[in-house]
Write a structure and sequence with these properties.
Blueprint: E1 13-14, E2 21-22, E3 39-40, E4 57-66, E5 70-77, E6 83-87
Antiparallel strand pairs: 1-2, 3-4, 4-5, 5-6
């Protein structure tokens, strides 16, 4: 069941770390770079809330498998150390380096 407080954002962006152009995701929401897998710490408590004031770079530190979601990337903020889990996208290029 989907969370009622989850806010969806699926827009393209240029990665602040590796400068790769990232198009919107095909089947979910784009929230990390498809090349380097980094993200920005923009959400606070609820996915999509854009309430964080940190804006640090979220480094990919692990990979988990969930039967319902498939692969999930564990990110840790390089600035404040907060962790988030984000579903891997179908066009992510470097998941093998996390396993």
């Amino acid at each position: 069941m989907a969370r009622k407080d989850f806010k969806k954002f699926n827009t393209g962006f240029t990665c602040v770390s590796c400068k790769t152009e990232n198009p919107p995701a095909l089947r979910s929401e784009r929230n990390h770079c498809r090349k380097c897998l980094r993200s920005l710490h923009v959400d606070d408590e609820t996915p999509g809330d854009r309430a964080s004031e940190c804006f640090g770079v979220m480094e990919p530190i692990g990979l988990e498998y969930s039967g319902a979601k498939g692969y999930v990337i564990l990110h840790r903020c390089e600035k404040c150390a907060k962790t988030h889990r984000n579903r891997a996208a179908e066009d992510d290029e470097r998941l093998d380096r996390l396993s």
